[in-house]
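Quick one: structure for this chain?
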Amino acid sequence: MRTAICPGSFDPVTLGHIDIIKRASKLFDRVIVAVLVNVEKQPWFTIDERMDLLRKATKGIDNIEIAGFDGLLVEFAAQNNASAIVKGLRAVSDFEYEFQMALTNRKLAPDVETMFLTTSTEHMYLSSSIVKQVGLWGGDISPFVPDCVHDEILMRIRQRSRH
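Got it. Here's what it folds into:
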């Protein structure tokens, strides 16, 4: 069974994330969407909330699992018998950082390949940060997030905007 890891912060999940996850699910037998604890970021949603949003947004994709992790991604991949890490690239600006990470992961775990999927053109500009920013200013986030989690994300944005 070919297993891949789709890692990310997913704070919150966007349609761009779902696009990459769905495409990865067609390439691999099993895809673990790995929600990471990123010490460099201050998340708006807890790891459990992000995992719950992802479960709702990926419902119906049979070969997807949602898991949380902290630590080295390659160690998480090894623990789950994953042979690949799948990352989405929006623009050239993403590539430099992701390329460095891929080379580091390759050095740490030569048997784990990193695959880059370019984001679909309709989602190239989209990020969780954009969703939060648009929402904070009262803009419509519905074109950016899955319908099934829209209201939960909007509620959190409203809570944050009051502080």
